[in-house]
Design goal:
Layout: E1 16-19, H1 23-34, E2 39-43, H2 73-76, H3 93-106, E3 113-115, E4 117-126, E5 132-140, E6 150-155, E7 157-160, E8 175-177, E9 180-183, E10 197-201, H4 205-214, E11 219-223, E12 230-231, E13 234-235, E14 238-239, H5 253-268, E15 289-290, H6 294-299, E16 303-306, E17 309-314, E18 316-319, E19 324-326, E20 329-332, E21 369-371, E22 376-377, H7 381-397, H8 405-422, E23 432-433, H9 435-455
Parallel strand pairs: 1-2, 1-7, 2-3, 7-21, 8-17, 9-20, 10-11, 10-20, 11-16, 12-15, 22-23
Antiparallel strand pairs: 4-5, 5-6, 13-14, 17-18, 18-19
Length: about 475
């Protein structure tokens, strides 16, 4: 166990700014601490947990009251802190939050987090000896951690761990809707929609979860542009993600996809028989929607299915098949924009959720800026963020070194080409990674980076890194 006393004394030339105290932030902080790298972890909210803290006062959590994980607990756990025995296969958001709290407390991270502190601006500056340093402006939230005043501090590196499921993406349909319109990010409980006619637009994980939740109190219709393959949480009695083993992912993608299709078919059969539209893509060409109940609810008539919205017409919605229906509320479960409001566009600009990062973490043009958890895996982000955090800690400590910028750019281009060849074009898939293949890439990169660092020691991060500007 890492205790507070085992944190090494701060060395200014290594000081790191960690933005966010969700799963990515706390595991990155823990990795830095283990290597003796001093850091400041800033969390806008008054407690840790990020997206898994229901009604988080940082305003960025999308957790609704009935939310349960769709990755099994074995894929959700950190490598050195197993889920407790009494944790269910698919826990409630409150179970996940308790697990994160225990993890952070166990490893002495919680006392190191500066709660109620928002990062408002991060910009690179020229440091000593031509190194890149980072000026980070923070604001202690009025009434939470201070009086709202800002100050700027200088760091040798910045780990961006604030998540990417917080800035809603809303479609721009022609016309105007006269009823209530919200995004899934703001949905909390079904009681608020008692006896309403609700249209849920989208068919990803949040969309189907919310549609089922609402169907207990409201009349619900689900609109989908291209359909989706619905994969139950259990395939032949086993958690679905437990079929995706490291060995299985070594198989050629087509073989793996074919075997997975057989598993899904043996469990649920032809989903069109439930009343579902046929997806416009194969099972392996899009991120699947994981839900145990959705097909049954459609088959029982608890949920109605409609194609994409063509037009909004007052109290009615016109669909692509020419049908129209009246609704009281529209809930857009249409995903999120990847944005970083504290990074000026001239520093780091994201277009259509596309980010050009080496191993999904490093921008070759921005030394010392690292993104943790900015991925969409077929599996849990948590254990991948842990591995990313360990890699970044090694880079910062100088125990690991990156290849040169040209090598990184070629790797970024190859990864983008693989995603483009496999998945249908959609902002949903720009961050996609195959879980175990990505693990293998990171592990290989850490080993080769260690050898590289021994051959040519990595440059230490700039001195005077905690200077207040």
């Amino acid at each position: 166990m890492l205790t507070r006393s085992s944190f090494a004394a701060p060395r200014p030339e290594h000081r790191v700014c960690v933005i966010g105290a969700g799963c990515a932030g706390i595991t990155t902080a823990k990795a830095l601490a283990e290597r003796g790298v001093p850091f400041d972890c800033y969390e806008k909210g008054s407690a840790l947990g990020g997206n898994w803290r229901y009604d988080n006062d940082n305003g960025q959590s999308a957790a609704y009251h009935s939310l349960h994980i769709n990755s099994s607990k074995w894929n959700m756990q950190f490598s050195d802190f197993p889920m407790p025995e009494d944790f269910p296969h698919y826990g409630h958001h409150s179970d996940v939050l308790r697990y994160f709290e225990r993890y952070a407390e166990h490893f002495g991270v919680t006392p190191r987090i500066q709660f109620g502190t928002e990062v408002t601006r991060v910009v690179p500056v020229a440091g000593a000896h031509g190194r890149t340093e980072w000026d980070v402006t923070v604001r202690a939230r009025d009434g939470v951690a201070g009086d709202g005043r800002e100050e700027t501090r200088r760091y040798g590196a910045v780990a961006v761990c604030n998540g990417h499921h917080w800035n809603p993406r809303v479609p721009d349909f022609p016309g105007r809707f006269a009823g209530e319109v919200i995004h899934a990010h703001d949905y909390r409980r079904p009681e608020r929609y008692q006896d309403r006619r609700v249209l849920v637009v989208g068919i990803g994980n949040s969309a189907v979860d919310i549609a089922i939740d609402l169907s207990r109190t409201a009349r619900v219709t689900v609109s989908t542009r291209s359909g989706a393959w619905i994969v139950p949480k259990y395939l032949l009695g086993k958690p679905a993600d437990q079929w995706n083993t490291r060995t299985a992912e070594l198989l050629p993608p087509r073989v793996r996809a074919a075997l997975y299709r057989v598993l899904v078919y043996l469990t649920v059969g032809d989903q069109a028989r439930y009343g579902m539209p046929k997806p416009a893509h194969t099972l392996s060409a899009a991120h699947p929607t994981i839900n145990q109940e959705f097909l049954s609810y459609v088959g029982h008539g608890r949920l109605a299915m409609k194609p994409n919205v063509r037009e909004l017409a007052g109290e009615e919605v016109v669909f692509d098949d020419g049908t129209r229906a009246a609704f009281d509320t529209i809930i857009y479960a249409t995903g999120y924009r990847v944005t970083f409001p504290f990074l000026p566009r001239e520093v780091f600009d994201v277009q259509d959720n596309r980010v050009g990062l080496y191993r999904r973490v490093v921008d070759p043009a921005l030394p010392g800026l690292y993104f943790i958890g900015l991925i969409q895996p077929l599996g849990s982000i948590i254990s991948l963020a842990e591995l990313q955090g360990r890699w970044v800690a090694g880079l910062v400590a100088g125990d690991c070194a990156l290849p040169n910028a040209d090598v990184m750019r070629r790797s970024i281009a190859r990864d983008a080409a693989v995603v483009a060849s496999r998945y249908r074009a959609s902002p949903r898939h720009t961050l996609q990674v195959d879980f175990w293949r990505y693990v293998a890439k990171l592990e290989r990169g850490m080993k080769s980076g260690s050898r590289r660092a021994r051959r040519r020691p990595a440059p230490r991060i700039a001195p005077d890194a905690l200077t207040t500007v």
